[in-house]
Amino acid sequence: MPLFPLRRIPSLVKPGQFLSRFSHSPHSSRRFFYGYISDSKMAPQLEPFFKQVDNSAESFIDRLRKAVAIPSVSAQDENREDVFRMAQFLATELEALGAEVHQRPLGKQPGKEHLDLPPVVIARYGNDKNKRTILVYGHYDVQPALKEDGWATEPFELTIDDKDRMYGRGSTDDKGPVLGWLNVIDAHRKAGVELPVNLLCCFEGMEEYGSEGLDDFIQAEAKQFFKDTDAVCISDNYWLGTEKPCLTYGLRGCNYYSISISGPAQDLHSGVFGGSAHEPMTDLVNILSKLVDAQGNILIPGLMDLVAPVTEEEKSLYGDISYTMDNLHESLGSETGIHPTKERTLMARWRFPSLSIHGVEGAYSAPGAKTVIPAKVIGKFSIRTVPNMESADVNKLVFDHIKAEFAKLNSKNKLDVWLQHDGKWWVASPKHWNFSAASKAVEQVFGVAPDMTREGGSIPVTLTFEQATGKNVLLLPMGSSTDAAHSVNEKLDRRNYIEGTKLLGAYLHYVAEEPVSA
Amino acid sequence: MPLFPLRRIPSLVKPGQFLSRFSHSPHSSRRFFYGYISDSKMAPQLEPFFKQVDNSAESFIDRLRKAVAIPSVSAQDENREDVFRMAQFLATELEALGAEVHQRPLGKQPGKEHLDLPPVVIARYGNDKNKRTILVYGHYDVQPALKEDGWATEPFELTIDDKDRMYGRGSTDDKGPVLGWLNVIDAHRKAGVELPVNLLCCFEGMEEYGSEGLDDFIQAEAKQFFKDTDAVCISDNYWLGTEKPCLTYGLRGCNYYSISISGPAQDLHSGVFGGSAHEPMTDLVNILSKLVDAQGNILIPGLMDLVAPVTEEEKSLYGDISYTMDNLHESLGSETGIHPTKERTLMARWRFPSLSIHGVEGAYSAPGAKTVIPAKVIGKFSIRTVPNMESADVNKLVFDHIKAEFAKLNSKNKLDVWLQHDGKWWVASPKHWNFSAASKAVEQVFGVAPDMTREGGSIPVTLTFEQATGKNVLLLPMGSSTDAAHSVNEKLDRRNYIEGTKLLGAYLHYVAEEPVSA
User: What positions does the domain Peptidase M20 dimerisation occupy (chains A, B) (predicted)?
Assistant: First the structure.
């Protein structure tokens, strides 16, 4: 419940809004529309919605239970039918709620042409030209899960423990958030409250397997089904901790590289040939050791010069963030952090590049001992990129450095280095009205100003939506840092699901009204 | 056929030999026993044996065909029965030839107690106190083989092509050489020539899977069944090339190490954590890069000081060896050799240590891209050892160096380094009478003095026999460098099998008589 003053309740805005929203200021709108602001009383339109969410909590949980029971694992061919079943489940639910729904086919799966890609479920709820149109994204496919992987419960049976933790594959990633949007419509209808925006949904079924085909689809629909979009909201990431919600305004990009070193025509016996031939693995570990030092400093000349300097304003965002070194140690499961403070730690994760060495293909990787000289080895590493690192510039510095280091070895082996894939970083203004609306919704529901966060990882669809629609994109997570997405015992806390449904709904009310900014 | 003068024909030696063999010189014996030495005529006892081998060639090949047809793959549980069948095949054949045969059980397989270890087939042919007793070793198990691995023919069907190459799993490794000894007895019996030595056989069935249980068996039988042994001969390696036989007098040892570096409690997402935590893989490639340089120089301080200096006499052995840089390039399938000359290349393989990095356990090793920070990685490397490197000294230098290099990294990760296994190097005197006898046999059969070689790899049973019996051990290969043991399309050339049978027989005649030396 709110712990401090409500600043404005935009959900009362009615016709006339379309003209007003581009001109009024928060203060003028507040004065214009409302007779009073109460510190303790809920505004009429959110209050019945919130109450309805509480009243419908069990049916919302039941909706999640049904969704979790469908093992829509996109990475496993044998579950493809289940992924389609999950699309149908969503479509049926949305239709029952009165939405216009389409299941859009994406064709055959590249490389597995016997498989159809799961459809993108798109929906429209409301078509009022006087309302803003908000496009929301989520995915209905899940990571693989087997009880024997170490799950304490059946992964595809939603199981609630005595601390109201709801365990099940997809509970937090991303079925809970997706159903959150359905719950919002549901509760509005049951409460008799009009949805203050037109809602467009884009729910995909291949997110956990590379979002095959989605980019082209979004690009095309940006001018069609999504053409009225005023802002985008994605709920597919997590709070920084467990207590305080966050809004996410930045993501690092990722340039993923392979270094191949080859010599002999086939693997050699190290007894027979050791000492007489240049060994690709020797060359490779040498090159890999020249990329990053043990303190995480990237050793590629010129790379750090591409990084935008930290501004004082930016620095000021970090102090208030609810995060401690203990949080880091808890998530690492060890005290092997590099930096001594939370500010430096978070900056290292969010706004500076990093370089990780992922592994080696072609060398001996099994337990035990094998005396092989691998004939060809491929080292894999990636660089997390940040403003203003352009992929082409990064590639040039990487390739030049690796070639120069290899030349120093005087090896007769053959070097190849190439970019496997890249994805650009994304940074939005946390002062945009899409964010300020979400910030108010967080304050309304959780009684606390959200952390303004970035993330170290990439969510490529974020950039796709931004580029395709030209609109601001907000990341508004529902789950918490302990939800174990992609791991065993994935869960979503009941609080995050139910209050999170309120948050998504409140966001729609605030964003309907938030004056233009940033 | 011989291309130059026969030097001596010891096979005429009859009773009286026991006394004479410790005193006579080659020249005195030759003068004593023979009226003349002919350049063109075969000595009576070898000539009928050789002729009989030629006459029996088809039946010897048929014997090999039957043996290859038994898929005695020791590494695969489902073939264990076949390994036992192969032992029985050998025992039956040896008994039919008049040998005393035992199949000695070795108990249950450690770690797989539902499996019985295959027996050691031991046999004695002849028990004449006036003759030398020669112990021969071979193995009757084989590497796995599947047609779909890339075999041009069925791996367990001996298939002879138009160049008389006999393809089949185990043809060269080591069923051909094992049957060579049986063929020798067979041909002597058929030719009515007495075997000039007592022959002891030790044929094992687990060589391709670690020779489980064999060491203890040999140690025990050295005082029992093998107690009369005067010299040992092992035929389980290969010529240096394809034309010229060799005798092998040295093997490198092998110390195999693991370096484990661990940090976080579980694998991390490189986007989320990259830059904020010490990464085990970063530390590991750094350590691995400090072990050996691209030119094969071992970087562990003090290690090269353990290596025995090269003597002038030793150097002189290398010039005549039939080997070229083209041979190296052919076997590498590339021109990525380190050294410019054959002498330096062979010394690097045979008499200097080498260090090879085999791979990394725990890192990402599949094709494709995965943005993981592995929580724990284990690097594997081994050092091929040579005189006078003692394992304990090597371990200390390795451990000290790695710990010192890790300390320099200032990483909070955890380092462990340990020896996985070690096996000592072996060097015999190539001037011992066991070798000089074999050398004469090579000259007799192939008309050329053999190359005196060492090998870079280890054949641990060699050292076991030397230590258990206290006698000289000779490695007398039958197959050539192109036989592809352990690979697809393993083969044994008909010439190597048939002339090789003559060689083994001739060796027994010469070794029966060779005066004591070295």
Answer: 257-407
What confidence score (pLDDT) does residue B220 get? 97
Residues in B closer than 8 angstroms to A173, CB to CB, are none
Q: What is the pLDDT of residue B313?
A: 86
Peptide bond just before B130 cis, omega within 30 deg: no
Pick from A388, A382, A381: nearest CA to A304? A388
Q: How far apart are the first and last CA of chain B?
A: 30
Tokens 């990294």 label which residue? B409
ipTM for the whole complex: 0.83
pLDDT at residue B12 greater than cutoff 70: no
Nearest residue on chain A to B375, judged by CA atoms?
Answer: A332
pLDDT one-digit tens code per residue, A132-174: 999 999 999 999 999 988 899 999 999 999 999 999 999 999 9
What is the Rg, in whole angstroms, of the alpha carbon atoms belonging to chain B?
25
Report how far residue B505's alpha carbon sits from residue B508's, in angstroms, rounded to the nearest whole number. Answer: 5
Gap between the Cα atoms of B93 and B102, Å rounded: 12
Q: What DSSP line would sit under B79-93, residue for residue? A: GHHHHHHHHHHHHHH
Give, as one character, the DSSP assignment of residue B223: T
Give the pLDDT score at A44. 64
Asked if B482 reaches chain A (Cβ–Cβ under 8 Å), the answer is no
Residue B279 touches chain A, beta carbons under 8 Å? yes
Token pair for residue B30? 């030759």
Helices A46-68 and A176-191: angle between axes, nearest 10 degrees:
140
Q: How far is CA B113 from CA B116, B205, B212, in A?
A: 7, 17, 13
Q: Which residues of B touch A367 (CB under 8 A)?
A: 361
From CA B279, how far away is CA A358, in angstroms rounded? 10
DSSP B257: E
Cross-chain residue pair B328–A276, CB shorter than 8 Å:
yes
Q: Map residue B83 onto helix, strand or coil.
A: helix
Spatial separation of the C-alpha atoms in residues B21 and B196, rounded to whole Å: 13
State whether A296 and B279 contact (CB < 8 Å).
yes
Nearest to B11 by CA among B200, B179, B235, B191: B191
**pLDDT mean over B502-509:** 98
Of B362, B363, B355, B350, the C-alpha closest to B402 is B355
Indicate the average pLDDT of chain B. 90
Yes or no: say if B234 and B137 are a contact pair by the CB < 8 Å rule: yes
**Length of chain A measured in residues:** 518
Question: Which bin fits B302, alpha (ψ -120 to 50), beta or left (φ > 0)?
Answer: left
Torsion sign over Cα A345, A350, A355, A359: positive
Contact A439, A10 (CB under 8 A): no
Question: Which residues of chain A are under the pLDDT cut of 70?
Answer: 1-44, 518
Helix (H, G, I), strand (E, B) or coil at B79: helix
Q: What CATH number matches the domain at B253-307+352-423, 3.40.50.1820, 3.40.50.150, 2.40.30.10, 3.30.70.360?
A: 3.30.70.360
CA dihedral (A285, A288, A290, A291) in degrees, to 10, reads -170
| CB atoms near residue B352 (< 10 Å) | 20
Contact residues on chain A for B418, CB-CB shorter than 8 A? none
Query: What does the block give as tokens for A419?
Result: 């970019």
Any A CB within 8 A of B5 CB: no
**CATH code of the domain made up of A10-250+426-513:** 3.40.630.10
Q: Which residue of A has its CA nearest to B382?
A: A371
Tell me the catalytic residues of A: 141, 207
**Closest listed residue to residue A86, CA positions, set A141, A168, A167, A123:** A141
User: Which CATH number describes the domain made up of B10-250+426-511?
Assistant: 3.40.630.10
* pLDDT band at residue B241 using 50, 70 and 90 as cut-offs: confident
* E strands, A35-132, in order: 100-104, 108-109, 112-116, 120-125
> What residues have CB less than 8 Å from B507, skipping those under 6 apart?
B233, B437, B438, B441, B476
